[in-house]
Amino acid sequence: MPNSKDPIFGKSTLLNLSTIFCIMLSILFMIVDQRTHKLEMIKSRVSNILHPVLWLAQTPIATGYKIGAQFNHYQTLLQENEEYKKRQLFLNVGLQKMASLEAENQRLRTLLKASVDLDEPSLVAEIQSLDLDPYRNIVILNRGHRDNVMVGQVLIDPNGLVGQITEVNEFSSKAILISDPTHLIPVQLDRNGLRGLAAGTGNLNVLEIRNIQMHENIHNDIKKGDLFVSSGLDGRFPAGYPIATVELVEYDSSKPFAKIIAKPTVQLDRIREVLILKKVRSKLNEAK
Description:
Blueprint (H helix, E strand, L loop, with lengths): L10 H26 L3 H78 L4 E9 L7 E4 L12 E4 L2 E9 L4 E5 L6 E6 L5 E6 L6 E4 L7 H4 L5 E4 L11 E9 L8 E6 L8 E5 L11
Antiparallel strand pairs: 1-2, 1-12, 2-5, 3-4, 3-12, 4-5, 6-7, 6-9, 7-8, 8-11, 9-10, 10-11
């Protein structure tokens, strides 16, 4: 038997009736509004009242859309910036390569002009690398037996004498520079013919001029800036090629020879291409 205290209608029944009533009321309002337009003022007032509420409800969504759009735009800008950086890097590398090629072409043009001015045939060679021995001044060239390179051939460049071929392989060769500590070359002073020996020191920018005897006019015979050239007296190198300019002269009457330091006319620490004189004169004479 049901309890007399229980309501006639349950909560769910009341909720359903409320829903049906609201739907019926809404339909009635729609019919009245469509036929009589008497609810326009009420709708306008309700709209004005609800506008701030709607604005507040839509503001977070609109703000979220704007933030998302700004973030996407920022990401796009970052990607474009990275692309521009890569392009700029490639352009800079290209410009550096062009500058390097232009400098190389200029050096080759100078070498070719020097080869035309020579009285004997020559061959352009490129320095590929340096010998691994840190105490020697030896370079590896990109010319070998296939190019008819032979031991004893002389290397020059437009500024003077560079060295001599010491070893030849099929596709490459080794050459000793005039600055090598074992290298000697007979020289003479271009101004007055005074003879001596240019000895390598191991420093690419320093040569020592030996066997210049002390005498009463030594101060006038050798001065800073004087040019030493190859004398050709050893039969290894052709005569008349620039070797070095005098940087320092020290006179000591108690010693038989003056101390003379000279700088090679060729920038041995910077050259990349050389001319190989095809005529072979004789093998090397090393410093003792």
